[in-house]
Backbone:
């Protein structure tokens, strides 16, 4: 009986291993890809004012794509992240009596998707990659001079899971973005930026630079957990 149990354990373990392998027949190449060393390019983004109420409002939705100087979305796309119910939360400020200084905000977003070109160096020769965003956080500093906004810069952190390989992740992806234009500026809206989502007629446009995109694949945790569960069944 003990021998039969051991046989069943080994057989199930082999089955689990084959399932895990099948899940990742299409797997990205792990690594750290950076605009700094030329292993990826920066991009452009829009944030739609979905309710028409302005920046930092729940429901506002982002749409970002790579920009190679001539075309959008040739290398990567990230879209569909909507500001959560808390909206933009002020975390600190320093503004003097003349209205000069800064205010810091933190904003969490829900939902979203990503796409990576399979022809880039993270590709495995089997096509493009797609996945879902599981965490998206933006820290923003708004700078003022004499009561007027003179600059908006943001640090973005996101995580995402690959659809074709559930133990591969975009992890701790970091980017810096700068506000280029927003509804109400008076200047014409510049061309060649991702369109506003949610059918919005207004919003903000940003340039994205200084990106670090880490791709991490770790089947060990999944395999270890599953193997432990199998052994428990037959003890």
Residues:
């Amino acid at each position: 009986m003990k021998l039969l149990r051991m046989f069943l354990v080994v057989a199930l373990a082999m089955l689990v291993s084959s399932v895990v392998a099948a899940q990742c027949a299409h797997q990205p190449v792990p690594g750290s890809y950076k605009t700094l060393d030329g292993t990826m390019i920066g991009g452009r983004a829009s944030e739609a004012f979905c309710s028409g109420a302005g920046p930092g409002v729940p429901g506002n939705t982002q749409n970002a794509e790579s920009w190679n100087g001539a075309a959008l979305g040739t290398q990567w796309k990230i879209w569909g992240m909507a500001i959560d119910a808390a909206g933009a939360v002020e975390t600190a400020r320093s503004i003097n009596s003349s209205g000069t200084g800064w205010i810091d905000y933190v904003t969490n977003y829900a939902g979203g998707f990503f796409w990576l070109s399979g022809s880039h160096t993270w590709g495995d020769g089997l096509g493009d990659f797609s996945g879902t965003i599981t965490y998206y956080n933006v820290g923003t500093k708004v700078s003022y001079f004499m009561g007027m906004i003179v600059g908006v810069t943001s640090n973005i952190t996101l995580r995402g899971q690959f659809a074709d390989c559930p133990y591969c992740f975009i992890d701790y992806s970091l980017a810096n973005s700068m506000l280029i234009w927003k509804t109400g500026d008076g200047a014409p809206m510049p061309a060649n930026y991702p369109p506003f989502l949610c059918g919005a007629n207004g919003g903000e446009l940003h340039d994205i630079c200084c990106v670090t995109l880490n791709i991490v694949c770790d089947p060990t945790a999944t395999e270890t957990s599953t193997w432990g569960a199998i052994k428990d069944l037959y003890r």
The CA atoms of residues 1 and 116 lie 51 Å apart. Confidence is low (pLDDT under 50) at residues 6-22, 223-234. The radius of gyration is 22 Å.
